[in-house]
Amino acid sequence: MTPAKVPHQNVTFDSTEGQAHGYIAIPESGKGPGVIVIQEWWGLVDHIKDVCDRLAALGFVALAPDLYGGSITHDGAEAAEMMSKLPAEEGARLLLGAVDYLLNRDEVTSETVGAIGFCMGGGFVLSLAAQAGDKVSAAVPFYGVGQGVPDSFKTITAQVQGHYAEHDDFFPVDQAREQEKQIREESGTEVQYYYYDAPHAFHNDENPMGNYREDHAKLAWTRAVTFLQDNVH
Length: 233
Known about the structure:
The protein has 233 residues and is of the alpha/beta class. It has one domain (8-231): 3-Layer(aba) Sandwich (Rossmann fold). 36% of the residues lie in helices and 27% in strands. The chain has six helices and eight strands; from the N terminus they run βββαβααβαββαβα. An eight-stranded mixed beta sheet has the order 1-2-4-3-5-6-7-8, with helices on both faces. α1 (46-57) links the parallel β3 and β4. α3 crosses α4 (120-132).
């Protein structure tokens, strides 16, 4: 699924947590709308960098902030521990810094950014949308779980497109449907959730848990990309 090589680099930016780090991929054209890519509980692993590269190949400037400060793992128990040690408020503040950094880059042509994230990152997509206001115009959580999921969605102004699994052991589909309803009722924004006959983390083709489902992943990705193209300007 890796696209042709695109310009990319590791970057450092300021947040209220101090200096933060991330990975940015830039279209061959040198410019494009901005998208924040938020990691799963494994850390800023190659798969997340690949998502950035794929978005850049489609014309986006894609930034993946490193929420763990360089730590990565491929062990589920260790990943759960790493996630539990990341305070939701700290992660949210770092992501807000990433949004400002991305919007201030010369390569970014959009006045807003999109946000797409997976697992823990899907939860933080919703948190970021709730806190960033009009700076985030499109929020795309994939099976968002973890402490990043906010209790209230009243401050979300972004359009929301969710991708959730019907056989998710981490976030049962009934809870996902309740979340969809809550966002729609509290935010008053456009909300569309899709549900797939798949397990948790079905989009990750490098998932150590072996949950990747190619057909569902491709469909979800096509929907997500179109949504970002339509809503990030």
